[in-house]
Structures are given as structure tokens and as C-alpha cells.
Fold TetR family transcriptional regulator.
Amino acid sequence: MAAGAEPGTQRPGGRTARVRAAVLRAAGDMLAELGFDQLDLAEVARRADVGKTTVYRRWGTPAGLVADLLSDMAEQSVPRTETGTLDGDLLANADLVRRTLSDPRQGPLFRAVIAAAGTDDRAAEALHHFYAVRVAEWAPCVRQAVGRGELPEGTDAEEVVRQVSAPLYYRLLTTGAPLDEASAVRAARAAAAAARAGAFTG
């Protein structure tokens, strides 16, 4: 591995990529099962069937491992859906968020990372980067709606996308209530109505 190279950037499909995939899979499983506080690099190495020295050398700390895990998740996330209407696009985004947070593995994993971000700067930075990537992926749907005349000029596309997922995260973290289809529909409709009313301009 070249000096200064990021984990997994050398020899795509080779041993480096396989090691990274195995380690990130094990780290994600542990986060979902045990939370960030119990993310032990030695145990990750054991689960991934990788040498401890390799894991410590490449990732260094649990926060470094979480940062790489989130980068990998951002790269592999489902691309946006374009339906041709603002309502359809925002509903597609809300439903994707709902399904992700309701997933038996992904839901606990995100809760663990969000909890870690409250106390660890590197985990927080990784989480912020993950959402920046995802928001940027969906923002063109809002800009296209502006171009079609569905929304006022000057609408902040990124903020509209954030407003779609915000109620779903709030419900997940504060009530523990299931994220059903109705909750996704409400989130999408509320964001669309606010955007049409000009709440995200200026």
C-alpha cells in the first residue's frame, strides 16, 4: 500500500479491497449489535478474519473505522429517483430514508453512529460528510422542480431535501415508533408544501 493512500484505494478487486470489505462489514455488524462504545478493533479483526496489526495500521481508531464505513456507505447508496414531479421525487426520497432506517441492520447502525457523533469529532465529521453526499445526490430533483415552475426561484434545494428526512429521524430517535409508509408520505408532503410556500427561499 502506497504511503498516504487511503484504505481500499489500491488494487481494486484485489486483497486490499477484500480486506477493507470484510473489515467494514464486521464493523457495521458490531455497531448495529453493540453500539459505538463497544466497537473494539481487535474484535473487528477477529470477526473479519484479518490480522489485528492490519486493522490498527489502516484505521487506527474506532472513529477512523466509522469514518471509512460511512464513506463506503455514501459511495454505495442508492441513486436518486426522478419521477418528473416534485411530489413524486420527495416521496421517493422519504421512502428510501424510511426503508433504510427501518432495516434490521441499517437502522441500529445509524443510531449507533449518530450517538457516537455526539461525543467523537471524527465520527461527527464522517456523519456530516455522509449526509452531505446524500443531500447533494437528491438536490437536483428540487432544482428541476424550480426549473419546471413548481417551486419559487431561489429555493434552497439542499434544505428541502434535509426537511424530507428530518421528521423521520426525529420520530426514530425520540419515539421509537415504527417508520411506516404514512410517516414517509407526511414528511414528503410537508416538505413540498413548505417549499411551495417559499419557506426555503431567501
In short: The two ends are 48 Å apart (CA to CA). Residues 41 and 62 are 7 Å apart (CA to CA). The chain has two domains: 15-73, 79-196.
